[in-house]
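HUMAN: Would you supply a protein with fold tokens?

ASSISTANT:
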Amino acid sequence: MRTILFLICIFASYFMQAIEVTYKNNSMYVNGEPYYMKGICYHPVPKGKIKRDFSTLDEDINLMKEAGINTIRVYEPIDDINVLNKLNEAGIKVIINFGYNQRGRYDILSGTLIDYIFKYQDHDAIIMWELGNEYNYNPQWFGGDITTWYKVLEVASQAIQSLDSSRIVSSAHGDLPTKEVLELAPSINAWGLNLYRWDKPESVFDDWPKVSDKPIYFSELGADSYMTRPHEQYESGENQQAQADANERILEKVLENSDKNIGAFVFSFTDGLWKAGNPNKQDTGGVAPNSDGTPYDGSANEEYWGIVDIYRNKKITFDVVKDAYLNFDIQ
């Protein structure tokens, strides 16, 4: 009898979730407490490299804490318990994103994302499972028919929720999904919006209620620190002030409307020298679909989006983010 009870306890603890994330009326709760995601997109790739590397994690965590960041969003799963533990100990939560095709490495196509969820679903650092990143801009990945993606998205969402009912399942969409998209993926709990509408994100708060009453968060927003062309008072070339001014205006509007969204993720934590050319130097340009809404030049210079540079020197916008997040109190 004692052996049977022991096995029952093991079985129950295996499926017992360490964290509970819920939502109601455009508000998010973690273990019953109101929670707003004061976030940053985080994909640290060292100078001269092309793959993510957590060798600067301790320094990065200290900078994040200084800036009032409580949540990070990553573009591929973190398969390192030590990294997750450090983030959790620092009070930083994580959105884990699963890509469609990552050559069978915790991806949607192979179904191996389920292996990751089994492995880490009891970890307190993980706050949300996110599927895809603005795939609506890339129908060519799905034979030219983007509805194929939304059907796959729905299947993956249902599968995750059958395994883990304690967290939100979301998808990051390029700007707003349409009613037709929402009908194809009805089980998605919340929608992330990669939103680049100059420095005026507030228009989304009128647009979204017309298509859904589900919660939204800004999975990407912000500006880069390079001006391809001059605009008004902002000169061409590297221009940290333009980035800072844009981020200040964007965050002000988003946080003023915190009753209409559950979080904001500034893109991004550090400059990415791997994105547009030689990873040993900082290049201009790069491929960024639907980037004509990037303030203030309508051009996304992909290697200049950090709130710190590749050496972790703070840009002007670091203090903008810090002031916005530290002075924000969830209602």
Notes: Confidence is low (pLDDT under 50) at residues 1-16. The CA atoms of residues 67 and 319 lie 7 Å apart. The two ends are 51 Å apart (CA to CA). The first helix runs from residue 2 to 15.
